[in-house]
Amino acid sequence: MSHEHNNSDPSTWDPALDAVAAAPANHRVIFENDRLRVLEVTLEPGEEEPLHHHRWPSIFVFDQVQGPIHDFAPDGTQLPPNRDVMQALAKWNGQGCLVAEMAPQPLGRVLNASSRTVHGIRVEMKS
User: Fold this and answer.
1) Sign of the torsion angle spanned by Cα atoms 124, 37, 114, 98
2) pLDDT per position in the chain (127 positions), as tens?
3) Looking at beta carbons, which pairs linking 74-77 to residues 24 or more positions away fall under 8 Å?
4) CATH class of the region 3-7+27-125
5) Which is the most buried residue in 34, 97, 105, 126, by most CB within 10 A?
C-alpha cells in the first residue's frame, strides 16, 4: 500500500494531488494564510472530480447539496457511504445549510449523482 493511503501522516501525501492542484475546476481558493485555507467547492450534476486528497481537517458548509453522492477509491472501487459528509447528508433534514466536520481525506474521487449542483465552502485548518 502506498503512502497515499496512509491516514496516519497526511503531511506525506503528494502535493501534486492536493485538491486545488489536482481538481482546480472544483476547488477555488478564496482565502489562505498560514493557519487556514478556505475553498469554494463546486460539483455539477453528473460530474466526477479528478483524483485528489485533502490533507487538513476541515469544516464543510454546504449551501446546496443533495444525494446521491458517491465516493470512489483510487482503484475505482465505490466506497461505502460512511465518510463524514455522507453521514452528515444522511442525517440532514434539507433545511438551511449542511455543516460537516471533515477529517483529512486520502486520495479519492467524488461523483455527484444527483440532479443538483453541490456547492459549499470548506475551511481547512492547517496543522
Assistant:
1) positive
2) 343 444 579 999 999 999 999 999 999 999 999 999 999 999 999 999 999 999 999 999 999 998 888 889 999 999 877 677 778 888 888 888 999 999 999 999 999 999 999 999 999 999 7
3) 74/4, 74/107, 74/108, 74/109
4) mainly beta
5) 105
In the chain, count H helices and then E strands: 2, 8
> Cα–Cα distance between 77 and 75 in angstroms, integer?
6
User: In angstroms, rounded to a whole number, what is the distance separating the alpha carbons of residues 7 and 33?
Assistant: 24
The single-letter DSSP state of residue 75 is: T
CA 11 from chain centre, in angstroms, equals 17
pTM of the model: 0.87
Please give the Cα distance from 64 to 45 (Å, whole number). 12
**In whole angstroms, what is the distance from residue 59 CA to residue 46 CA?**
24
